């Protein structure tokens, strides 16, 4: 058995989503704090170039993207369940909407000048320049572009009204029932991001049902964790052996074969390529085998949705 290791940094909204998932599952984990901007040499030694936050490590298996991390945590501990059996499609679809549409609106609102001035009030000006340049690079080359601020402001009341409507039912406390699921955590992390400054907090607080629901979701906490150095995490991967591959069939409509050298990258943003040998292509998951001088032999796992495979 290997520890669950989360590579993250405190202010990352998607990292907050992963921390809440671990808390919901009441799991113990190790915390590796990574830089918020590139370069991230210890992280990319494990991932092969994937730079987005967070990343989950279990021995020599590296899981990219919270969409897949959620499924891996459901496999790690069956209950409480993140994808309710009778609502798997609805939960996954709502989570995808939250991680894309809702989140990109939240980013535009958070990055408005008044909000950023408060977020970086105690930060050296040189880091602000580095951070801004890094985020431009993060969103270059992908299919997603920033939502104009005036458009985000125009859309936001409608997005929140729809959430209010979903939460206004008397018989259910959460988005899809009386227990939180992946949809709740996917919606929550974008709103948590907005709550960070007085400039954007009213965009959540002005909606009573949403605000009360968010408090309950954030109340699950982050579980039990202890700190781990990035160096030690890389050493753990080097000494470990990747887990056996899934037993389900290899499925790829574009003709890629097991063992083929490929490149996998995100479609939307953070499109840094990861090269390796395609070991497995399932309905939800892609697994790439790669070797690194420091991390050794690792299997890097990606969700299928939102990623593309290219021949190398």
Describe the structure concisely:
This protein is an alpha/beta fold.
List keywords for this structure.
single chain; 19% strand; ten-stranded mixed sheet; Glutaredoxin; 11 helices; 312 residues; 2 domains; alpha/beta; globular; Glutathione S-transferase Yfyf (Class Pi), Chain A, domain 2
Describe this structure in words.
- This protein has 312 residues and is an alpha/beta fold.
- It folds into 2 domains: 4-80 and 224-311, Glutaredoxin, CATH 3.40.30; 89-218, Up-down Bundle (Glutathione S-transferase Yfyf (Class Pi), Chain A, domain 2), CATH 1.20.1050.
- 42% of the residues lie in helices and 19% in strands.
- It contains 11 helices and 10 strands.
- The chain has helices spanning 13-24, 41-47, 66-76, 88-110, 113-119, 125-138, 149-167, 182-194, 202-205, 208-218, 230-239, and strands spanning 4-8, 28-33, 55-58, 61-64, 224-227, 261-266, 274-281, 285-292, 296-303, 307-311.
- Strands 5-2-1-3-4-9-8-7-6-10 form a 10-stranded mixed β-sheet, sandwiched between helices.
